[in-house]
Design brief:
elongated, mainly beta, four-stranded mixed β-sheet
């Protein structure tokens, strides 16, 4: 999201990602030569005579912390000039304030002493993957995606020749949610945590929604404004990392636990939607730990009946069953896809209903007793009421 995220995680992965770029010292501190923050520093000019302006030396080092790339004399109080060095077979990742590359150098700060700046490089690796948009919503592409179960040609991003840069242009509706991945199994998932920003020109176009685990990396990107958008995904596969500590990790499923500290997603708002939105019908279903074994089951016994805009389900549930309401959206041509609307414990507000159910930290609903439950949902008010009759 924000640029500072790169700095926070860079130190943790740089040992691997920048291994090919040079030795960072033998004392374990990441320093070379005279200390972690004093490599090659020289004292600045003494106070100038006859009103001469005082200046300091800024030394730009390679990733090894010893090779000098350039030097610059900077007047006291001025800022050094940022530039992009080039190295064959390497990708420049930015300038850093210490040889250990622990945090980025701030070029906006005035110079008050001799300083050293250190380049971060990464091995250039060609990305041979193909990314697609996976999600759900009312817009043409996401209405048929069904969270990636359907991947047509138009769902795939276009990779720029000779670059690890992928783009896709599409219409989005308010409420649409999506991520990018390479297949229907959500391998190499790139979600909301990769967005450089959610705002542009004073307007918030997206939010990061529904994160998994304690990271936003696998969170959905939620559209907040109808329009036509272009997304650009930039990847650095040489720095891909894998969550091998996850209890579900295996070599066969490793790409589901892939992430990257440098990959970014940018967007451009191109204006109003270019296509008309198809009218969709939303049907509500129950989905739970016991009642459906967390499977999407669209049989009649799990389906809410709609009358005058109000949706109702009467169903027998066991004590302690944890569940929520999910949706299926159907187009005018009869095609259906899993929706992105969920009804949870937070949709229950009246005291009478709360007497029959509890909620979890993730806002799933839990039955207090076994019996026959009547659920009534009003989409207009987003209110769910609960009735109960003991067996």
């Amino acid at each position: 999201m924000k640029k500072k995220v790169l700095s926070m995680i860079l130190a943790a992965v740089m040992t691997l990602a920048l291994a090919a770029c040079g030795d960072t010292g033998n004392d374990g501190s990441g320093a070379t030569g005279q200390g972690s923050d004093s490599v090659g520093q020289e004292s600045g000019d003494s106070t100038g005579q006859d009103g001469e302006t005082k200046s300091f030396k800024v030394t730009f080092y390679d990733a090894d912390g010893t090779t000098v790339l350039s030097e610059e004399e900077v007047a006291e109080g001025a800022s050094p000039t940022e530039y992009t060095p080039e190295k064959e077979g390497q990708v420049f990742m930015g300038w850093f304030a210490t040889p250990s590359l622990g945090h980025e150098f701030d070029f906006s700060q005035p110079v008050t002493e001799d300083i050293s700046v250190f380049a971060g490089f990464m091995e250039a690796v060609e990305d041979t993957r193909t990314f697609a948009i996976l999600g759900s919503g009312k817009s043409p592409l996401l209405a048929v995606s069904s969270w990636g179960k359907v991947l047509d040609e138009e769902h795939y991003m276009t990779r720029a020749e000779g670059e690890n840069v992928y783009t896709i242009t599409l219409d989005l509706c308010e409420g649409d949610e999506f991520q990018f991945a390479i297949d229907t199994s959500w391998s190499n998932q790139r979600g909301g945590g990769y967005l450089e920003t959610t705002d542009a020109d004073g307007t918030t176009y997206f939010s990061v929604s529904g994160g998994l685990s304690d990271s936003t990396k696998k969170a959905n990107i939620k559209c907040l404004k109808d329009g036509n958008y272009t997304f650009t995904l930039t990847t650095y596969p040489g720095a891909d990392v894998y969550d091998t500590e996850n209890s579900y990790y295996t070599e066969e499923t490793k790409e589901n636990y892939n992430s990257n500290p440098y990959d970014t997603i940018r967007f451009t708002y191109n204006g109003e939607m270019q296509a008309e939105v198809e009218e969709l019908t939303t049907t509500y279903y129950i989905k739970g730990a016991i009642v459906t074994e967390w499977q999407d089951k669209y049989d009649e016994e799990y389906t809410f009946k709609e009358e005058n805009g109000i949706h109702t389900l009467v169903i027998d549930l066991e004590k302690g069953d944890e569940f929520l309401l999910t949706t299926l959206v159907t187009g005018a041509d009869g095609s259906s896809a899993t929706g992105n609307e969920y009804v949870r414990y937070s949709n229950i507000t009246d005291e009478a209903s709360l007497a029959f159910v509890d909620g979890t930290e993730s806002y799933n609903i839990v039955t207090k007793e076994a019996g026959t439950y009547t659920f009534t949902y009003d989409p207009a008010s987003a209110q769910l009421t609960v009735g109960f009759e003991a067996k």
